[in-house]
């Protein structure tokens, strides 16, 4: 099984000059989503469905850089487009025509898009959505769904997070996912005060089974927002282009006012987008919002090539097929060992959890055993699929999963 001596040495080196060495949810904290004993810290290269760590271990990557990798790393078409643009210029004083072409493509592709605006991170897009909603309505409050994640801006955090002050979140209201009645009550308690409802297309929080929208949830939410003049902003940063190229609102049969994209938008090139309806275009234009790299053209060229290829190969359909084979196989392997693996969420970004143990010990041990055999899963976050995965990769994954269950039964005989 894999070990990570070089990763560990590099982490020591990094800790001297970088706060926490690797920050965010990849941080090396025992008891975190990624126990440091089981996971490498640094990658050396990536290609297709794989990445290699600094110790030379190869992994089938089911995290896909937490979403950006949708066509496989180093996709030839995307990289060719990016390289061609790099030869012409990337970060220049003026934007290039690629920015317009990319916006046109998104307006053609995304159901709720009458316009597109580009930034860099998902949090840039969600922050812009909130600002547009406030500018449009003249109201301060926003409703969020518990467990949704909208980035690292202070408004998107919770009191108790380091450095967040009460005023940062004093206009935030929270509801439970799929509880329409609670949402309606909240809206009625705050007449004329709510600028925005921001939500992910379905509940894909960490540490819990992911939950799809109830049958009529979104149509009722859409009607409620329209009735009360609330801007409905969909955070499609994580699901975007994996469920439906026209947007996850389209997938679930409703129309957002604003929709935020990032991760899969340019197959790993650095760009995010916010798209919206015609009625909000003037307000979007009135908000001063920009950044040092926001006009860079290489990611626009990469994004155009990405969306074109996703359309040509019908990526969402392909990802669902891959997801069906993979998760069906994993469930069967678990069953053959007497375990129940619960699959939740949408297949292109499925969440999985072994349900035979409330302490998470069994689940984490199995995930760790898979990782140490070259299948990069994670413990308590949804996974991601890319279209470069082959049937051989899935067969390899199922073999590893089987081996990993055997290893876990030896390691933890109480579960055997
Ligand atoms: N929204 C969702 C649903 C996300 O998954 C993420 C990133 N994990 C964000 C927003 C924030 O995006 P970024 O980290 O690029 O700012």
Description:
The chain has 2 domains: 5-73 and 314-415, Aspartate Aminotransferase, domain 1; 76-312, Type I PLP-dependent aspartate aminotransferase-like (Major domain) (Aspartate Aminotransferase, domain 2), CATH 3.40.640. It has helices at 5-17, 76-88, 97-109, 122-137, 180-189, 217-228, 248-251, 281-286, 297-312, 315-336, 361-371, 391-411, and strands at 43-47, 50-53, 58-61, 115-119, 141-145, 172-175, 194-199, 231-235, 258-261, 272-276, 341-344, 351-354, 375-376. The protein has a 7-stranded mixed β-sheet with strand order 4-10-9-8-7-5-6, with helices on both faces. It has a 4-stranded mixed β-sheet with strand order 1-2-3-13. The mean pLDDT is 96. The protein is built from 12 helices and 13 strands. By secondary structure, it is α/β, with parallel strands linked by helices. The structure holds 4'-deoxy-4'-aminopyridoxal-5'-phosphate. InterPro entries: Aminotrans_3 (IPR005814), PyrdxlP-dep_Trfase (IPR015424), PyrdxlP-dep_Trfase_major (IPR015421), PyrdxlP-dep_Trfase_small (IPR015422). Keywords: Pyridoxal phosphate. Its cofactor is pyridoxal 5'-phosphate. It comes from Paenibacillus stellifer. GO terms for molecular function: pyridoxal phosphate binding; transaminase activity.
Write the layout of secondary structure elements.
Layout: H1 5-17, E1 43-47, E2 50-53, E3 58-61, H2 76-88, H3 97-109, E4 115-119, H4 122-137, E5 141-145, E6 172-175, H5 180-189, E7 194-199, H6 217-228, E8 231-235, H7 248-251, E9 258-261, E10 272-276, H8 281-286, H9 297-312, H10 315-336, E11 341-344, E12 351-354, H11 361-371, E13 375-376, H12 391-411
Parallel strand pairs: 3-13, 5-6, 5-7, 7-8, 8-9
Antiparallel strand pairs: 1-2, 2-3, 4-10, 9-10, 11-12
Helix pairs in contact: 2-9, 3-9, 5-6, 10-12, 11-12
């Amino acid at each position: 099984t894999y070990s990570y001596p070089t990763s560990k040495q590099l982490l020591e080196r990094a800790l001297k000059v970088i706060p926490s060495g690797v920050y965010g949810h990849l941080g090396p904290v025992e008891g975190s989503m990624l126990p440091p004993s089981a996971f490498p810290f640094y990658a050396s290269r990536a290609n297709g469905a794989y990445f290699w760590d600094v110790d030379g271990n190869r992994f089938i990557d089911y995290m896909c850089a937490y979403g950006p990798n949708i066509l496989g790393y180093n996709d030839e078409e995307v990289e060719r487009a990016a390289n061609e643009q790099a030869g012409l210029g990337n970060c220049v004083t003026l934007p290039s025509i690629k920015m317009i072409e990319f916006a046109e493509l998104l307006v053609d592709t995304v159901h709720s898009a009458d316009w597109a605006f580009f930034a860099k991170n998902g949090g840039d897009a969600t922050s812009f959505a909130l600002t547009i909603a406030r500018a449009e309505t003249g109201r301060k409050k926003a409703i969020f769904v518990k467990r949704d994640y909208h980035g690292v801006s202070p408004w998107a955090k919770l009191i108790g997070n380091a450095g967040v002050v009460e005023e940062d979140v004093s206009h935030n209201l929270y509801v439970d996912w799929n509880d329409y009645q609670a949402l309606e009550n909240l809206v009625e308690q705050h007449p004329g005060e709510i600028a925005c409802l921001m939500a992910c297309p379905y509940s894909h929080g960490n540490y819990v089974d992911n939950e799809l929208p109830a049958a009529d949830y979104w149509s009722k939410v859409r009607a409620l927002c329209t009735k009360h003049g609330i801007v409905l902003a969909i955070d499609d940063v994580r699901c975007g282009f994996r469920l439906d190229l026209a947007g996850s609102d389209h997938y679930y049969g409703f129309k957002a006012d604003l929709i935020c994209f990032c991760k899969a938008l340019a197959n790993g090139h650095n760009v995010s987008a916010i798209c919206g309806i015609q009625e909000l275009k003037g307000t979007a234009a009135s908000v001063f919002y920009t950044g040092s790299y926001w006009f860079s053209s290489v990611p626009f060229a990469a994004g155009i090539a990405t969306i074109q290829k996703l359309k040509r190969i019908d990526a969402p359909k392909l990802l669902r097929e891959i997801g069906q084979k993979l998760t069906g196989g994993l469930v069967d392997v678990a069953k053959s060992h007497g375990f129940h693996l619960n699959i939740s969420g949408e297949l292109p970004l499925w969440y999985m959890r072994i349900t035979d143990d409330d302490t998470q010990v069994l689940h984490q041990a199995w995930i760790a055993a898979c990782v140490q055999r070259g299948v990069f899963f994670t413990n308590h976050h949804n996974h991601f699929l890319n279209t470069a995965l082959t049937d051989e990769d899935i067969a390899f994954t199922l073999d590893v999963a089987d081996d990993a269950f055997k290893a876990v039964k030896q390691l933890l005989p109480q579960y055997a």
